Amino acid sequence: MGVPQPTAPSFGRDQIRRLWHNNDWYYSVVDTIRVLTGSKNAQAYWAKLKERLEAEGASTAIADLVQLKLQAADHRFRLTDTANRPTLLRIIQSVPSSLAEPIKQWLAQVGEERIEELENPEAAIERVRQTYRTRGHDDAWIEARIQNDLTRNDLTDEWLARGAEEGR
């Protein structure tokens, strides 16, 4: 049985090619650049942006790129710079385009929420409740699910305290 194939992310008519590789989705960087900038020559735009990232010392984002063969418009498979989600989000942060701004704002919002949850762990549980509510689950189901998660966490904490090792 293969990996489920989610619909490729699309922005209007534009699609971002992606490929399942090493248990992760890898997305075409050039396609992402084209969508976020509207550039006619996304390959040249990406080459320039890559140079700038290297000059700024963001070499980890560049080092995490993987060249994979993706099908081009002419139906031939060509090596293409691809990135997993964390690397792609890091690259998007460097794209100077108003089209990328909503994603940058979302990243800032998510970062703020996670920092808030570190300072106030109850906020994390409330976020989980809200997520389940928006998915249509009733309050009884939500509370049972949260309680199960908390119990499982207590159990694994106890195992670790008694010397259990992960993967064994």
Give an account of the 3D structure.
- The model is unreliable at 1-10 (pLDDT under 50).
- The protein has a 4-stranded antiparallel sheet.
- By secondary structure, it is α+β, with helices and mostly antiparallel strands.
- It has 2 domains: 10-96; 120-161.
- Helix 1 packs across helix 2, helix 5 crosses helix 6 (121-134) and helix 6 crosses helix 7.
- It contains 7 helices and 6 strands.
- Helix content is 56%, strand content 15%.
- The longest helix has 23 residues, at 139-161.
Summarize the structure.
The protein is an alpha+beta fold.
Compute the number of strand runs.
6
Portion of residues within helices: 55-70%
Largest sheet: 4 strands, antiparallel
Question: Biggest sheet: strands side by side, in what order?
Answer: 3-4-6-5
> What is the overall shape?
elongated
Residue stretches low in confidence (pLDDT < 50, at least 5 long) are 1-10
Instruction: Tell me the number of helical segments per DSSP (H or I, 4 or more residues long).
Output: 7
How far apart lie the N and C ends? Answer: 26 Å
Structural class: alpha+beta
Q: Output the radius of gyration.
A: 20 Å
Taken together, the total number of domains comes to 2
Protein traits:
168 residues, single chain, 6 strands, alpha+beta, elongated, disordered N terminus
